Amino acid sequence: MSRKQVILGAYLGGVNHHTAWWHPRAGSQIDFSTFEHTARTAERGKFDFFFLAEGLALRERAGQVFDQDIIGRPDTLTVLASLAAVTDHLGLAGTINATFNEPYELARQLASLDHLSDGRAAWNVVTSFDAFTGRNFRRGGFLDRSQRYERAGEFLDVARQLWDSWGRSDILADKNTGEFLARGSAGEFAHAGAQFDIDGHFTVPRSPQGRPVILQAGVSPQGRDFASANADAIFSPYGKLPEAAEFYRDIKARAARQGRRAEDIKILPSASFVLGDTEAEAVEKYHEVRREQVTGQTALILLEQIWNRDLSDHDPEGPLPTVEPDPDAHPIIEGKAFVYQDRFDTVANLRAVAEAKKLNLREVVIDQFERGPIVGTPAQVAEKIDSFVSNDGSDGFIIGSHLVPWGLDEFVDDVVPLLQERGALRSDYTGTTLRDNLGLAPLDDRVDSATSR
Hints:
Blueprint: E1 7-11, H1 32-44, E2 49-52, E3 60-61, E4 64-65, H2 76-84, E5 91-97, H3 103-116, E6 121-126, H4 131-134, H5 148-164, E7 171-174, E8 180-182, E9 188-192, E10 197-201, E11 213-217, H6 221-230, E12 233-236, H7 243-257, E13 266-271, E14 273-275, H8 279-293, H9 296-307, E15 333-334, H10 343-357, H11 361-368, E16 374-376, H12 378-390, E17 396-399, H13 407-414, H14 416-421, H15 434-437, E18 448-450
Parallel strand pairs: 1-2, 1-17, 2-5, 5-6, 6-11, 7-18, 11-12, 12-13, 13-17, 14-16
Antiparallel strand pairs: 3-4, 3-15, 7-8, 9-10
Helix pairs in contact: 2-3, 3-5, 6-7, 9-11
Family: Belongs to the NtaA/SnaA/DszA monooxygenase family.
Domain Luciferase-like: 29-389
Pfam families: Bac_luciferase
């Protein structure tokens, strides 16, 4: 049996409680040099792709923009298109909302990115029912929660129809110039459904991958079904065994029930890292970073999203609030996804942790609001990554750092060579497209040939 290879993605965080934006070495969050450095570093480390999240609105607390939030973020597709010019092999993945975009326009943009990058485009499909964000896009502001996956599913179906509208029978390739030549039916499409009713001719010829790689995240049963039916890779929220392995088995089984090969959907949790010359040094460095990340104000803001109350009169160095959450009030935090299934259960768990560990409010947040970093010496981190993937906790990781954009350099310089020595990571790129490098089944994107125009 061949050695299981680790898939690596690199994410670039914005200004939030995970990013040390105050650090003297921290770079700009919007300057192109930040994106370029991270992408070039990831490619130097033979990462599969570079990933950008999407911020469609500046988040607010009690009607005021967060003073700790992202203040400005360039358009995702524009940044990725720019990075296509300064990288050669790295996949370029962006989060684009299926609720607040239209299939024809987005399909054109993604197909164009796939052409510009020679087959390295990926789309992380997300949905939204958030009226606060939606008011930037439409009157009334939002799509009903029950319809978000309905729209996303039909959106993806239409996008695939558009990408596939340039079939082999529609395209000729000039043997002398290699240029695509269109026949009369090239790009023809028509779709009539509950969400979309469009027809015409798609303007972008079939791209190198045929279709961009599709990424998705889904934890609920509905989300898991959608991802297992449609995604090439899914973001996992689980960074520890055995729950990660259970999620892995469940998604692979759902994919098989959809008639797909289990190996054609990849499972990828996100992870940060902290390195040290010794394990003790790495652990101490990690605790120092966490104390810097979670200021008293940050701790209160994170808890306000759960309590849905103004907690500014509470002492971050004192106990957790004794008041109960108020789920029926207008959200005090807007524009940030609420990831907790039940406010009361979450509060009960936080109180139990505080009591058991004798922690104050800020210490509870430091302890509980964490993505699960990989901490240790470079050899220990490489071993943890390799072991996690080998034991089917995932197919790889999406790696980020608290220090933008320089933090990833340490991982590439110190951990990547050890993964390569273990045989868990390639020493060079083997494919010509992102789909190739991820080990996904190729699409049939061959075209007929012609000797002349």
